[in-house]
Amino acid sequence: MHGDPLGQEAVGTLLKRMEDDRDQLVVIAAGYPQPMQRFLDSNPGLRSRFTTTVDFTAYAAAELVQIADSMATDTGNTLTDDARTALGLVLDVMDAEASSPGPPSATPASSATSSRLPHASETFACSRTPTQHHLSFPR
Question: Is pTM beyond 0.70 here?
Fold first, then answer.
């Protein structure tokens, strides 16, 4: 945010409003740890106004598979055993990628999907035919 004049203006406006209405206004800022640290470091007044931090433990891959399974069930779909296994593998790769030092690389994810998921549409089988939307990652 240091090089973003609009971002700095927005932070300045927020800080002024927080000061002017401090008895009537609650502001909650949420995000991933590193971007939040950069946000708080972007202006000297931010850290003193956001004094409480709540860290949430990330879900494990197995927990995310259970959530996906439950979501599929809620929409009238069923994940196959192969789909659960494949999803667990993809989530394990994503978790390893996120926790590895250095810049992110698509190589582990790419090799996992090409060698372990050669037919994604078959592997991620539902009780109805998945669409491109079902097989796409959000951008």
Answer: no
